[in-house]
């Protein structure tokens, strides 16, 4: 048994598909399948049920997967400790980011991060919050940039910036000429929302429900761009995060109006595993991102 065998096992547990797991591990499907069989032979237990097309783990397999994740996390920690010996800002850095931030934040920060920290090799991964936290927990990510949620409280969070949310309406909407709208005016209105899994959905719903608004039950978007296009056709209104509209203020068909009493917002943080020896690295990255974005938002 070696570390690579454990990586194959964990990957297979995540993808539930031999080819996809093999692609993620950069090996052929026969190689991954063969190593799993060798692992079973070595341990003397059956890890998988092979009677169907689906990848199903036995109870013993599930227990081993949990232990493998723990071992890989410790191995990741050892590698981080080694990379921190006099090389604080060098080496690979795997960063996760949520979809409602990625397209709007990365163009601002990546060129500067590469310029300021040329010794760091950046790897970027975009996914919803729960998926990012799973990968962070298992050691597949070093850190993640996301909106603070209850699920991230078990990690160390470094605040980066606060992002306002604005009301997006069609330019044919009766509110399109307003300079500001008290949140209470959403009472009784239906709001277009993102699909389940997006943390922005929960945060926006919290403000809307508090104001007495409801969710439009006939449509859920998979992206902010879909929401924006739906608003432009005057199908409904929504809350849009500030970074997503910085370069969209002149787009035909949509108006963005600040809210007040209270002003909806979300806190953006960089999160990493407790106990990581690379705290200073993450703090420098977070500080740099904050210095880039705060002037842009102000």
UniProtKB/TrEMBL annotation:
Keywords: Activator, DNA-binding, Transcription, Transcription regulation. Residues 1-58 form the HTH lysR-type domain. It holds the Pfam family LysR_substrate. One of its GO terms (molecular function) is DNA binding. GO terms for cellular component: protein-DNA complex. InterPro entries: LysR_HTH_N, LysR_subst-bd, WH-like_DNA-bd_sf, WH_DNA-bd_sf. Belongs to the LysR transcriptional regulatory family. This is LysR family hydrogen peroxide-inducible transcriptional activator. The lineage of its organism: Bacteria, Pseudomonadati, Pseudomonadota, Gammaproteobacteria, Pasteurellales.
């Amino acid at each position: 048994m070696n570390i690579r065998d454990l990586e194959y096992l964990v990957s297979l547990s995540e993808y539930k598909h031999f080819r996809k797991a093999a692609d993620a591990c950069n090996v052929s499907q026969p190689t991954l399948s063969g190593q799993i069989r060798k692992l079973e032979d070595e341990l003397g237990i059956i890890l998988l049920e092979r009677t169907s097309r689906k990848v199903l783990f036995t109870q013993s397999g599930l227990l081993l997967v949990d232990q493998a994740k723990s071992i890989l996390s410790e191995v990741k920690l050892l590698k981080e400790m080694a990379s921190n010996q006099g090389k604080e800002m060098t080496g690979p850095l795997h960063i996760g980011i949520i979809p409602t931030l990625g397209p709007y934040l990365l163009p601002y920060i990546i060129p500067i991060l590469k310029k300021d920290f040329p010794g760091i090799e950046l790897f970027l991964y975009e996914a919803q919050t729960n998926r990012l936290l799973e990968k962070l927990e298992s050691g597949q990510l070093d850190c993640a940039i996301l909106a603070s949620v209850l699920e991230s409280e078990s990690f160390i969070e470094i605040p980066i910036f606060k992002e306002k949310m604005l009301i997006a309406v069609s330019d044919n909407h009766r509110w399109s000429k307003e300079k500001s709208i008290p949140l209470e005016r959403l009472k009784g209105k239906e709001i277009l929302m993102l699909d389940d899994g997006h943390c922005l959905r929960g945060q926006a719903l919290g403000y809307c429900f508090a104001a007495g608004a409801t969710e439009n039950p006939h449509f859920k978007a998979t992206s902010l761009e879909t929401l924006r296009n739906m608003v432009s056709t005057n199908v409904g209104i929504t809350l849009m995060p500030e970074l997503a509209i910085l370069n969209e203020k002149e787009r035909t068909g949509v108006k963005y109006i600040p809210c007040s009493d209270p002003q909806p917002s979300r806190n953006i943080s960089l999160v990493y595993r407790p106990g990581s020896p690379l705290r200073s690295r993450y703090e420098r990255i977070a500080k740099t991102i904050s210095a880039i974005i705060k002037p842009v938002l102000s």
